[in-house]
Design a protein that fits this description.
Radius of gyration: 35 Å
Strand content: 5-15%
Helix content: 40-55%
Number of strands: 15
Strand order of the largest sheet: 3-2-1-4-5-6
C-alpha cells in the first residue's frame, strides 16, 4: 500500500483541551484520525497560524504518543481574516500549488472538519478541482457514548460515479438537459443525439465561445437560445439573450449597432446608444452568420472576447461587458481565412468548441418527431390544434423521407410546410388533397436546385421535356418512378401507389392503372427499370 498523508487545519477550538491528563477524555478530531484501528496515517500535515504554536506542538506530541508511525509536519498558514473567502482561498491555492504532491507514490486525505467554515469550503473546492489530489476526510464525535474519544471517520470520494444513487440522479438530469436542448423532441438520429449530449456538457462546464456551423435553417439560432435558457435555469447567466444576424450589419451602422456610440459621435447620433455587446452583459450574445462581419468589426469582437472591453463609436473611454458568446455560420471559415476575408486569430479564438449541425436531409428519421413538434408550435401560436388523418400523414412522411425531398431550407422548409397545411385545414384535419398540394409546392420550391439531378428523371427525359412538365406532374411522376424502381413487379408498385383508393373499388387492376398513368408521359415499366 502507498503511504497515506492527511492534510488538515488545526482545530483551535475542537482540538484544544486543558494541558493535563484530562485532555484524553475529550474527543479531538485531529487526534481521533490517527487513533482509528483501520486507518494507518504515515504523515499528518497540520496547518495552523503562529498564534496556535503551543496547541499545535501539543497535538503533535499526542499524535506521536498514540501513533508513533505518524510523522507530523507542521505548516504555518497565516490569515489576516480567516473568514475572508478570497484571502483564504488564495493562500490555500498557493499552498496546493507549492506542495510536492506525488499521487503515484502517496494517497492523500483532506480533513474538512476543523478550521473555519470558509476554510472548509475552500478545501472542498480545491479538492474538487484536483488542486488537492485526494479524497475528503470527515470526522465526528462518537455519538451518545460518553468519553468516546475515537469518534468516527468517513471518506468522501468526489468521483460521483461511485455513488449509485447520486450517479443515477446526475444521469437523469443530464438526459433531461439534453432533451431540453432539443426542445423536448424525441430525435432518433444517433449522430445528432451524440452531438447534443456533448453540447450539453460543454454548455454546463465552459464559458468559452461556442461555434455552431451548418446549413441555413439547420437550427443554429434555436439551439443557441436553448443553450442560453438552460444556463439561465442553472443560474450560470443572469442577463439577456441578444441575437444579431451579422449579414444585416453593413457600413458605419455595424460598429454602432455592436459596440454602441456616444451622443454626437456622427451625424444623426442624437442620443447615446448602448450597443448589443453591452445589452448582453451578464447574459449571452449570439452572432449568427459571423462570417459576414467586416474586418474592423472582427478586430473589435476579438478584443471584446479576450478582454471583455471595447471602444464605443465616438468614445474616449472603453466600455466593458461580460457576456458568453455563441456564433453561427453556414460558411467554411477556414476557407474565408485562406482568402483573407476572415481573421485567423478570431477563428482560433472561436473554434475551441465547434459543433456542426446536420441538415434535415441527413436526419430523415427525425422528420416525424419534428413534424409533431411543428404542429404543437402551430397550435400554441394560433390557438388551434390541427392534426393529420392517417392516409395524409403516411403520404406526407413517405414523401418527406424520399430522395425527392431535398429539404434545402432544412427545418425552415418543414416549419413553413406545416404552417401552410395547417392553415389550409380549417376543420382541424389535414387531408390527402392538402398534402398533395403541399408536395407540389415543395417540388416547385426545390425545382431550380439539385432536385433536377437527384429525382431520377434526367435518365428518362431531356431537359426540354422536363421543363415542359408542370411542377405538380413533375413531383407526382418522380414519386411514381421511385416506387416503381423499388418494387419487384408492376402489380406490387400499383398496390403501393393506389393503396387507399383501391379499397373503394369493386375490382382493381393496379398494374393496368399504373401502365396507363405511365403511358401519359410516354413511359413504360420496362423503360423505367431498364434505366434504374
Amino acid at each position: 500500500m502507498k503511504p497515506l498523508v492527511v492534510i488538515g487545519f488545526l482545530g483551535s477550538t475542537l482540538d484544544a483541551a486543558k494541558f493535563g491528563p484530562s485532555r484524553w477524555n475529550k474527543w479531538r478530531p485531529s487526534l481521533s484520525i490517527v487513533m482509528q484501528e483501520d486507518l494507518r496515517v504515515d504523515r499528518f500535515v497540520l496547518l495552523h497560524g503562529k498564534l496556535h504554536n503551543r496547541l499545535a506542538d501539543q497535538i503533535a506530541e499526542d499524535i506521536e504518543s498514540v501513533s508513533p508511525e505518524t510523522t507530523v509536519d507542521q505548516k504555518f498558514l497565516e490569515f489576516d481574516d480567516p473568514w475572508e473567502f478570497e484571502e483564504v482561498y488564495g493562500k490555500l491555492l498557493d499552498f496546493a500549488r507549492g506542495y510536492p504532491f506525488d499521487p503515484d507514490k502517496e494517497d492523500y486525505l483532506i480533513h474538512i472538519t476543523t478550521g473555519t467554515h470558509v476554510a472548509q469550503i475552500c478545501l472542498f473546492l480545491l479538492t474538487e478541482a484536483r488542486y488537492l489530489p485526494g479524497r475528503l476526510l470527515q470526522t465526528q464525535p462518537g455519538g451518545s457514548v460518553k468519553g468516546n474519544v475515537l469518534g468516527r471517520v468517513s471518506m468522501i470520494d468526489l468521483d460521483l460515479s461511485r455513488y449509485d444513487s447520486i450517479a443515477s440522479r446526475f444521469s437523469i438530469q443530464t438526459a433531461e438537459d439534453s432533451s431540453f436542448l432539443k426542445s423536448g423532441i424525441e430525435t432518433k438520429n444517433i449522430a445528432f443525439n451524440t452531438l447534443i449530449d456533448e453540447i450539453e456538457q460543454v454548455a454546463g462546464r465552459s464559458k468559452a465561445p461556442i461555434l455552431l456551423t451548418g446549413p441555413t435553417g439547420a437550427g443554429k439560432s434555436q439551439l443557441a437560445r436553448r443553450i442560453y435558457e438552460l444556463k439561465k435555469l442553472k443560474h450560470q447567466v443572469s442577463g439577456s439573450f441578444v441575437e444579431v444576424n451579422c449579414a444585416t450589419l453593413r457600413g458605419d451602422s455595424a460598429m454602432s449597432a455592436l459596440f454602441g456610440h456616444t451622443k454626437g459621435a456622427f451625424t444623426g447620433a442624437a442620443t447615446e446608444r448602448a450597443g448589443l455587446l453591452r445589452t448582453a452583459n451578464k447574459g449571452m450574445l449570439f452572432l449568427d452568420e459571423i462570417g459576414e462581419l467586416g474586418a474592423d468589426e472582427q478586430a473589435m469582437i476579438l478584443r471584446a472576447i479576450e478582454d471583455k472591453r471595447f471602444l464605443p463609436v465616438g468614445a474616449d473611454k472603453e466600455a466593458d461587458s461580460d457576456f458568453q458568446l455563441i456564433v453561427g455560420t453556414n460558411k467554411d471559415l477556414s476557407a474565408a481565412v485562406a482568402n483573407g476575408t476572415f481573421r485567423d486569430d478570431l477563428l482560433a479564438r472561436l473554434n475551441l468548441w465547434t459543433f456542426a449541425l446536420p441538415g434535415l436531409a441527413d436526419r430523415k428519421e427525425d422528420i416525424e418527431p419534428n413534424l409533431d413538434y411543428e404542429l404543437d408550435r402551430f397550435a400554441e401560436r394560433e390557438g388551434n390544434r390541427v392534426t393529420f388523418n392517417k392516409e395524409a400523414r403516411d403520404r406526407y412522411l413517405k414523401f418527406a423521407s424520399s430522395p425527392n425531398a431535398l429539404w434545402s431550407g432544412n427545418f425552415r422548409d418543414l416549419a413553413a410546410s406545416v404552417t401552410r397545411m395547417a392553415t389550409l385545414s380549417p376543420e382541424g384535419r389535414i387531408g390527402r388533397e392538402t398534402v398533395d398540394l403541399e408536395i407540389m409546392k415543395l417540388g416547385r420550391l426545390w425545382q431550380g436546385g439539385v432536385v433536377e439531378k437527384n429525382d431520377g428523371m434526367h435518365a428518362l427525359f431531356s431537359d426540354e421535356e422536363l421543363n415542359a412538365l408542370d411542377p405538380f406532374d413533375r413531383v407526382q411522376l418522380a414519386e411514381v418512378v421511385n416506387v416503381s424502381r423499388n418494387s419487384k413487379s408492376m402489380s406490387e408498385a400499383g398496390r403501393t401507389l393506389f393503396a387507399s383508393s383501391r379499397q373503394r373499388r369493386k375490382s382493381a387492376n393496379d398494374a393496368d392503372r399504373l401502365k396507363k398513368y405511365l403511358a401519359r408521359f410516354g413511359l413504360s415499366w420496362a423503360e423505367i427499370n431498364a434505366e434504374a
